[in-house]
Amino acid sequence: FTRAIGVPYSKLKSKTVIEAFSSYYEKKLNSATLRSYADFLSDIVQGRILSQESTWHLLDLMKEVKTGSRRLISGFPKQIIFAHKTGTQIRRVCDLGIVWRPDGNPLIVTACVQGYSSLGKSEEILRRIGKAITNSGLLN
Asked: What angle (nearest 5°) sits at the alpha carbon of residue 46, between those of residues 43 and 50?
């Protein structure tokens, strides 16, 4: 890596990838709270940000997301439509989106798992969150 970027190892501020990401996360760049993401998704689905045509185009794209098949959606009933965006970083895994309930009303869901050393463990927690939402009756 140091050869590729042309910087000697001795000049790096972070000695490991985990240390570099921890430092990056502390700066709170390119991040927001889950509540802020939920508000943003709500504004999108209610047409407050884009034109109606652009809103539906974006939501159609989000419905086709293939990543995260073992995350929230794996805990939802098969017939549920979920327009979402996943995120995977070092020791942080997220799944954020809009679930369409059978009555047509949207439910905004934002969830992240951090601190786990395994992607599989993180995805299992997100699956359990999806299952808990299903079991709560919110999707009926």
From this structure: 70
Residue with token string 């098949």: 69
Q: What is the pLDDT of residues 7-56, one digit of tens each?
A: 888 888 887 877 887 887 788 777 788 999 999 999 999 999 999 999 99
Q: Roughly how many angstroms between the first and final C-alpha of the chain, as a whole number? A: 50
**Separation between Cα atoms, residue 101 and residue 51, nearest integer Å:** 23
Amino acid at 55: T
The set of residues, in sequence order, having a beta carbon less than 8 Å from that of 14 and lying 6+ positions away, is 20, 23
HSE, side-chain direction, 13 A CA sphere, residue 11: 7
Reference 109, options 138, 70, 78; nearest CA is: 138
**Which amino acid type is present at position 12?**
L
Ramachandran class of 5: left when φ > 0, alpha when ψ lies in -120 to 50, beta otherwise: alpha
Residues 6+ apart with CB under 8 A from 8: 2
